[in-house]
Amino acid sequence: MVLDDNDTKRYIISSWLRRAGHTVVEAADGAEGLALLAGSPDGELPELAVVDVKLPDMSGFEVCEQIKADPRTASLPVIHISAHAIEVSDRTQGLHRGADAYLTDPIAPDELLATVTAALRYARARRRAERLAARVAALNSSTLAVYGAKDGCSFAEAAATGAATLMQSPAVAVALSPDNSTLHIAAAARNTEQGAAPAGVVAPVKVFRSEPRLLDLLAGRVLGDGTGTATVLLSAAEWRGTVCRADGAEADVFAGEVALILARTKKGRPPVALAVDGEALARVDDRDLLSQLAQACALALEALRSRSEEHALVLTLQRTFLPDRLPEVAGVDLAVRYEPAADDSEIGGDFYEVIETPAGLLLAIGDVAGHSLKAAMIMGEVRHALRAYAIEGHDPRTLLDRLDALLTRLRPAITVTVCLVLVEPGARRIQVANAGHIPPLLRCPDGSTRYLTEHGPLLGLNVRHPPATAHDVPEGATLLMLTDGLIEVPGVDLGDSLAALQATLADAPGEIGDLCDLLLERYGREKTDDIALLAARLNGTPDTATAA
């Protein structure tokens, strides 16, 4: 931009610049020049301003200050020229007030062009460095997003959003879910809404599913069986024919050539594919940044896959510690439910047990403190020890004392909560011994409910437990035993949760299997702790019912 109120001088300077290969826009006063800058789109702003110091409406110094004060034009180089303000004090003032260079008449064409070239060289290097720094920051943010994904769908969405933001282009991400069963494709189209920020090219991301063999097809064209990253350019027709079939029309977000990059970290593992506009890879920096993002996506998905495999393995191990079947006892109907914590949580030590003993049917539910493989292993030890002691015919209080002695000797510093309920023959009387666990909840046939709140200390404290408490129960009563994962919610008083559960049980279905399903549906979603439920319908035997 050449800003000068002298038509002849403005023409001469503009002619010198045009002959040197520059595109020039002209303005005759300060207001016109500032308006020209304000009306230029971000991608079409002049790269440099040549400003006369003496203007009819304001000084060139003031124009320069306003240019530098606007964030859109703060980095725009300004070269002052003057035939009148030629003293050292004038030049000093101009430089102090924001100018990048100061020339005085008479000006030689070579001097002006050399000054313009030097100013542009510095400004372009600065813009390139700032752009690269911003894109590296975007790469870091995108990497954090893909590493924070919880499943295949959220991973594909994060990868597509990251590629679109980083490359300022529509983008598509193709990735196989961590369990290798579902192919997720996420498409981020260019945001065409008015007023969208330049960096906001990402419209709402669409995630859909396709055939897993599509990823094999893409890998065959680009990466083969190798590791690392590889890039290929596809025509729009090739892209549509490969990806945008009837089940993938949402991936048709590119107008022209498509840059497809695939990354794989380990041989034999499914790769990750990213696609952007071919024009987005015009510079070496662009290729390097997209390659780094693809590699980060492959590493993040591999970590997610490893976590998923490890979690599945641990859950399988945990389930081997639980009973594989329930005994069938006359007069008692049983139902159990066991739900592991959310997929991204560690396993816990929740357990249940049902054992036929000489004294009756023993119901047990408990929880080992902590969430880890160690907690699950200790849970298995406690459960097996409980079975061994129970079949010897010990009463509930003795069972708790023996388990406590076992823990304090073999697993010091570990605490366990356990609630034992012995259903005596005939199922009309129960004995409750509770070592610090959630109290069992009893519902009578008339719909009334109450917690059996008698309890003693946790296991593992080396403290003797009180005798079990006996309760008579009417025929058809329902007994519910649970672990705290069902009702415990951070920030919510446990007493309120227990009261809500009691109200739910009062109005719950009579069939105990349906009751358990209702409780899991209402209270068990997205919990970070394992959930164990044990429900018993105490119907009594025909002999005891007649005697009653």
Percentage of residues assigned to helices: 25-40%
Mean pLDDT: 88
- Count the helices. How many? 14
- What topology, given as strand order, has the largest sheet? 8-7-6-11-10-9
Question: Low-confidence segments, ≥5 residues, pLDDT <50?
Answer: 191-203, 544-548
Q: What overall form do the CA principal axes indicate? A: elongated
Distance between the termini: 104 Å
Counted beta strands: 21
Major sheet = 6 strands, antiparallel
Strand content: 15-25%
Radius of gyration using CA atoms only: 37 Å
Structural class: alpha+beta
What does this structure look like?
This protein has 548 residues and is an alpha+beta fold. It is built from 14 helices and 21 strands. It has helices spanning 7-19, 30-39, 60-69, 88-96, 109-147, 152-167, 213-222, 236-242, 284-320, 373-390, 396-410, 494-506, 512-523, 542-547, and strands at 2-3, 26-27, 49-52, 78-82, 101-104, 171-176, 183-188, 206-210, 228-234, 258-264, 272-277, 332-339, 348-357, 360-371, 416-423, 429-435, 441-443, 449-451, 469-472, 477-482, 531-538. Helix 5 (109-147) runs antiparallel to helix 6 (152-167). The radius of gyration is 37 Å and the shape is elongated. The model is unreliable at 191-203 and 544-548 (pLDDT under 50).
